[in-house]
Specification:
The complex is a heterodimer of chains A (757) and B (184). Chain A is an alpha+beta fold. Among the domains of chain A are: 121 residues, PH-domain like (Roll); 271 residues, ABC transporter transmembrane region fold; 79 residues, Rossmann fold (3-Layer(aba) Sandwich). Chain A is built from 25 helices and 17 strands. In chain A, the strands form 4 sheets. A 6-stranded mixed beta sheet of chain A has the order 13-14-15-10-16-17, sandwiched between helices. Chain A has a 4-stranded antiparallel beta sheet with strand order 1-2-3-4, sandwiched between helices. In chain A, strands 9-8-11-12 form a 4-stranded antiparallel beta sheet, with helices on one face. Chain A is extended and about 125 Å long. With 184 residues, chain B is an alpha+beta fold. In chain B, β2 and β3 form a beta hairpin. The two termini of chain B are 41 Å apart. Classes of the chains: A alpha+beta (757), B alpha+beta (184). The interface between A and B is large, with 49 and 40 residues.
């Protein structure tokens, strides 16, 4: 087991050899600040290596034979310290003489403790007070009790919380229906009882009516006929009862099954909507779709299996087995001879078929992924003339599906007849042994039996092998179910959601004061995109944000809308941490216009009113007018009732942006965020939008991210983002006077405009 | 098809605005203080503390190497790319290779002994880089990515990288075990 971050940073664990070697460098126990063990040498060999830090020096000492050392480095000569993340491992680097020098290397397993140790080193280098509590804080990536890695985004240790298995959890889903299910089971038990009756009646029929034994007292002919009719009536009653029970069982299980799958689908959809944007970066839409659409169906199968499959068959097998043994246990044993072969065959089959089930699912989901990508990108395909290649790719994926399906189905098709044959052998044994018993031979099998008993034996045997083979097929079904269940519960358990606080701060009205306090955030927590951003925006201010693409502007907006939570620092709205606000309250007050506007397949009016479906038509018109969208909409034959295609097909990029601005305005947000919202609009319309926005935005906090700097001239303040930091801030004039980044950006753009005009 | 590319071909135009090629003629690579990699480009600066990155680590593990350095304000910059390392002198090749070895830490799985699934985690016991190794990875779609034509890279719970070069080259038993969990 790998060392857990908790015990890596402890002085007490330093091996004696390392301690001795350290003393040669003047590292006494009392000057030691902290020590941390790494698992790699600089060249990548796996070996325990210790980083020892005193208040003045750092030294790295290996535990190997010759105990290679790095350093010691004098902290006074180091200007900076950083974690440099390479691929699969990372380095602790000190900046000496303006150059970063590798001091120690560690695998990704130790990113957390080294991150903390590097923070401490930073304090030492900058002369800030040490924070020993940081080093001893419990790990956030490993369970402190059992050392198992925790799911990212919190959610607790799966082992220590004793998460139930998939079957148990599915049974849990059925809890609301427990009464119906118990009833179902009772009915089923009755059904099994009914199933066992006909062979006994048939036995009576044969022995007493059709072929009575020679020594039996001769019945009157009329009496035989009466008995015949009674027996027939009994058979009719048994099968009629069976029919009624079957109808009941089938209907009830279908009602429960469809209800459960519907509820599960709804829960999945709710979960999918609540998952953060990050989750969607990692998972393909195709694989998520097939979970909601197909995997959930297995849960209906589960109910059917409980009601009609597994349990019923198990009871039948037990019931019939009991009857067989009761009639003649020796014969029954003979009949069961093929069972070991069946069990062995089934186990073998199961082991081989198991991976194939997964592959079929995989090929299905790959195919649907490919198809949805192809169809939504159809214009790109046509524009680049890649139809033929797409055809090849599709045919490859279809071939994969065909192959995996064929693999599965041919195995099943081979297996089932073989099993049928083996079962048949069991029947042949009974014909032979039972037949001779009826004839009064084979005395070692016990007393001779009547023909009726033999017939009943056969009837039971006929009923017996069905459930046995169904039971062996059950494992196949269970495999499919397990994999589907795993995929469904994987989504249900995803913790990549932004949760509402337990005791939210309620806000009826919002003024719109925004504060970022030392915010550090990275999509990958070890690679920050925002590296300590702080600013305050007063209510009603119009703020411009500029910066190169990739500098973190959209990321800033993502944090403000709480699509993500920062790793360090706080984002505050009216002095309240966003984490303490309900998502609903927050989003109601923030209007967002995205860089890539997304329009739904609906009318223009519906798209504008998406955030306020009850909006009056006049309000929709006003919002559209303010966004400079009114005129182009009015020119359409169907006006605001124009139906838009997929993702707003039928509109130009600029038109789409204007509709999405109108959509944001209509919600009357206190805080309006425009993320390059007018980037695809021509300069003239942009000016019109600006004019309208200037009126609309009065009194609202507005954050506009723009490439065209001219649109931000009138901003109260402009922030210049650079490499995840606010490099400059001030009004247009102040920033120009600063002669810095902003000045340079403006100069470049004015040159460009000169070329354009 | 056998036409000479004209001097105004797309190829040449792109080359004039694209990445800078580093060749043995214009670039000297040597070791400096703290055994850091230094790199001098003719008509340009001397760069100190250089590190190398593979641009196509899977398809061209020996070609298209980008040389980079950390500049002011800890910004990372590219000096240029080496298209074919073999054209460089032995010594330079050795330095670059050593530098690359520092940048990449991937465990090459040669055998799979056991895979166990519990709590939504896969517990692997494997032979990696010639040593027995074990690791834990979440049983999730996005933790096993494709690696080249038929390989897989497994990201364990800490994002350590375990590579299977070619799944089809595993023994039948190993492959069955592997694909029964990593079936995508
Ligand atoms: N979902 C994401 N996952 C990982 N990295 C991301 C993601 N979105 C953006 N980034 C990275 O974060 C940085 C900042 O991106 P962004 O905030 O979108 O820049 P911009 O200033 O152009 O809006 C970029 O380097 C980008 O590659
Ligand atoms: Mg952006």
């Amino acid at each position: 087991m790998k060392p857990t971050p908790l015990n890596v940073i402890t002085i007490g664990r330093i091996p004696a050899t390392v301690r001795e070697r350290a003393q040669a460098f003047g590292f006494d126990d009392d000057c030691l600040q902290f020590a941390i063990a790494s698992d790699l040498a600089l060249d990548g060999r796996a070996t325990e290596t210790w980083v020892l830090v005193s208040s003045t020096h750092v030294v790295v000492i290996g535990t190997g034979e010759n105990g290679e050392t790095v350093g010691p480095f004098e902290l006074r000569t180091a200007t900076k310290v950083r974690a440099f993340h390479a691929v699969g491992s990372a380095f602790l680097q000190l900046q000496i003489d303006g150059l970063y020098v590798d001091v120690a290397r560690y695998s990704n397993s130790l990113r957390e403790p080294f991150g903390r140790a590097i923070g401490e080193l930073k304090c030492l280098i900058e002369g800030a007070p040490a924070r020993p509590e940081v080093l001893s804080r419990p790990s956030e990536t490993l369970c402190t009790r059992c050392g198992l890695p925790l799911p990212s985004g919190g959610g607790g240790c799966p082992r220590c919380l004793r998460k139930q298995g998939i079957f148990a959890r599915t049974l849990g889903l059925m809890r609301p229906y427990w009464l119906s299910i118990i009833l179902l089971l009772l009915v089923m038990l009755g059904g099994v009882g009914l199933d066992l009756i006909p062979p006994m009646l048939q036995r009576m029929l044969v022995d007493r009516v059709l072929a009575p034994p020679a020594d039996a007292a001769l019945m009157a002919h009329a009496e035989s006929i009466r008995l015949l009719i009674w027996i027939l009536l009994g058979l009719v009653a048994a099968s009629a009862g069976r029919m009624l029970l079957n109808i009941f069982i089938g209907r009830t299980s279908s009602i429960i099954g469809t209800r459960i799958t519907k509820e599960l689908r709804e829960r999945l959809q709710r979960k999918l909507v609540s998952l953060n944007v990050e989750y969607y970066n990692r998972h393909s839409v195709g694989s998520l779709m097939s979970r909601v659409l197909y995997d959930v169906d297995y849960f209906q199968g589960f109910v059917t299996q409980v009601a009609q499959g597994f349990l019923l068959n198990l009871m039948l097998v037990l019931g019939i087995g009991a009857m067989l043994f009761w009639m003649n246990w020796r014969l029954a044993l003979l009949a069961l001879l093929p069972i070991p072969f069946v069990v062995a065959g089934t186990t073998f089959f199961w082991r081989h078929i198991y991976p194939r089930y997964y592959r079929v699912w995989d090929s299905q989901s790959k195919l649907s992924q490919l198809l949805s990508g192809l169809l939504s990108g159809i214009r790109l395909v046509k524009a680049f003339g890649q139809e033929a290649r797409e055809e090849r790719r599709f045919s490859q994926a279809a071939g994969y599906l065909q192959q995996s399906r064929r693999g599965l189905e041919t195995s099943v098709a081979t297996f089932n007849p073989i099993m049928g044959f083996v079962f048949g052998l069991g029947g042949l044994i009974i014909w032979y042994a039972g037949g001779r018993l009826v004839l009064g031979e084979m005395r070692l099998l016990g007393e001779p039996i009547t023909l009726g008993t033999l017939m009943a034996f056969f009837a039971y045997m006929g009923m017996f092998y069905g459930p046995v083979s169904a039971l062996s097929m059950f494992s196949n079904w269970a495999t499919g179910f397990l994999s589907a269940g795993q995929r469904v519960f994987e989504v249900m358990d995803a913790t990549a959601s932004i949760s509402d606080p337990p005791n939210p701060t309620r806000r009826a009205a919002v003024e719109g004061r925004i504060e970022f306090r030392q915010v550090v955030f990275g999509y990958d927590p070890y690679n920050p995109v925002l590296k300590g951003v702080s600013f305050v925006i007063e209510p009603g201010q119009f703020i411009g944000i500029v910066g190169k693409s990739g500098s973190g502007k959209t990321t800033l907006v993502n944090l403000l809308c709480r699509f993500y939570d920062p790793q360090e620092g706080k984002v505050l709205l009216d002095g309240v941490n966003l984490r303490d606000l309900r998502k609903e309250d927050l989003r109601r007050h923030i209007g967002l216009v995205l860089q890539e506007p997304f329009l739904f397949r609906a009318t223009i009016a519906e798209n504008i009113a998406y955030g306020r479906p009850d909006a009056e038509p006049a309000a929709i018109l006003n919002a559209a007018k303010a966004a400079n969208a009114h005129d182009f909409i009015a020119r359409r034959p169907a006006g605001y009732d124009t139906k838009l295609g997929e993702q707003g097909a039928g509109l130009s990029g600029g038109e789409r942006q204007r509709i999405s601005i109108a959509r944001a305005l209509l919600c009357d947000p206190r805080v309006l965020i425009l993320d390059e919202a007018t980037s695809s609009v021509d300069t003239e319309s942009e000016q019109e939008i600006q004019k309208a926005l200037a009126t609309v935005c009065r009194g609202r906090t507005t954050i506009a991210i723009a490439h065209r700097l001219s649109t931000l001239k009138n901003a109260d303040r402009i922030f210049v983002l650079d490499e995840g930091r606010v490099a400059e801030s001030g009004t247009h004039e102040e920033l120009l006077a600063l002669q810095g980044l902003y000045h340079r950006l403006v100069r470049i753009q004015t040159e460009l405009t000169r070329i354009e005009s | 098809m056998n036409e000479q590319p004209s001097p105004f071909s797309l190829e040449n135009t792109l080359a004039s605005v694209g990445v800078r090629r580093l060749t043995p003629e214009n670039t000297t690579i040597f070791e400096g203080t703290f055994s850091l990699l230094h790199c001098a480009v003719r008509g340009d600066n001397l760069y100190r503390g250089v590190f190398a990155v593979l641009l196509f680590p899977v398809t061209y593990p020996n070609r298209f190497i980008s040389l980079r350095y950390t500049g002011e304000k800890d910004k990372e910059h590219e000096i240029g790319i080496i298209e074919d390392l073999a054209t460089f002198p032995e010594e330079a090749q050795h330095l670059i290779r050593r530098n690359l070895a520092r940048h990449y830490k991937e465990y090459l799985i040669t055998r799979i002994h056991r895979i166990r699934q519990e709590y939504g985690l896969l517990f692997f016991e494997v032979e990696a880089d010639g040593h027995p190794a074990s690791f834990v990875m979440p049983w999730r779609y996005d933790r096993a990515e494709e690696y080249g034509q038929s390989g897989k890279v497994l990201l364990d719970a800490f994002d350590n990288r375990y590579i299977i070069r070619d799944v089809n080259a595993l023994s039948a038993t190993e492959r069955r075990m592997f694909t029964s969990f990593i079936y995508w």
